[in-house]
Known about the structure:
- This protein is of the alpha+beta class.
- The protein has two domains: 3-129, 3-Layer(aba) Sandwich (Creatine Amidinohydrolase, Chain A, domain 1), CATH 3.40.350.10; 133-345, Creatine Amidinohydrolase.
- 36% of the residues lie in helices and 21% in strands.
- It contains ten helices and 19 strands.
- The strands form six sheets. A six-stranded mixed beta sheet has the order 4-3-2-1-5-6. A three-stranded antiparallel beta sheet has the order 7-10-11.
- Helix 7 (133-154) crosses helix 8 and helix 9 runs antiparallel to helix 10.
- The longest helix is centred in the middle third of the chain and has 22 residues, at 133-154.
- It is elongated, with a radius of gyration of 23 Å.
Amino acid sequence: MNEFTKKLGAALGDTADAALILSEANRFYYTGFAASDGALLVTKTDALFFTDSRYTEAAERKLGGAYVRDSAKLYETLAGIFAEKGIASVAVENDRLTLAEFSLLQKKLPDVRFVSDAALTDLINEQRGVKTEEEVDKILAAQHIAEAAFDHILGFIKPGVTEKELQLELDYYMLRNGAEGLSFETIAVSGKNSSLPHGVPSDKKIEIGDFVTMDYGALKYGYHSDMTRTVAVGRVTDKQKLVYNTVLQAQLASLEKMCEGVSCEAADKAARDVIANAGFGAYFGHGTGHGVGVEIHEYPRVSPKSNATLKAGNVVTAEPGIYLPGKFGVRIEDMALITETGCRNLTACPKELIVL
């Protein structure tokens, strides 16, 4: 067992005798081993990883042969282990397990009581939400690649370049310079398309007077980065400056508010109030941020609907935006590590308005 599986086993308490983790993301978090197939069984004193022949040797090298089992007859093997260890109740991931998977578990293992409430999900979210120093270093490694891509792309953006070409250049640069993959499909939109928070890059060509918004990230050591920058091409209007500076002040206000013990709702409100007071409240619809780590969107969410409280070790984004339909939009996004006294900004790229 590694420190993560030990931490989960110790925290099970009265929830259940064991936890069965089937989702790929949670399996990777607790084992550090990436595989498209597998199951992780965590008891209060032990852990076992099940996978098929494609991954068996690699898993044994990574985790140690004593902790790896063949998944060819998963249910029969689990039944034997449950009987041997006296495991009567097993908690499952109620937010990730499909109804078909849950029904199959109940059918194949009728002597076990499966705990399908939110107890295990909440426990995993809390544990994954607080990053270790090693995890922060992995996120920073991914972020450094994304930041180098930003420096590179500033010399690529010019009138006549299409959004798709911009997207591909960012992607190619990150993959060529150490990224294991992309955090998500890169967003690169310009002009009127920048009013679409999750716009899809098109064949539209960048023009003088456009805002260009780029939302992207790199994957490194299994961890994601996430950043957004909006730059201008050629010139900006007074309205564009006002909107940009309002978003920047909103983002700074949110970062200033972020600290251990502060509610995610309050951190969101800090940004939302700045935008509302400037008269643009109707044009900021999404949450201010989200956790980042093994997945691009993790617990906790920084939004008006969140009931979570920030904890030291959380890595969350601060990404308010203003989107004027049919005109333009602005979003600025950094990642922040929550500390006991505030937050540490993990994003080093400049965010004052850049006019290329």
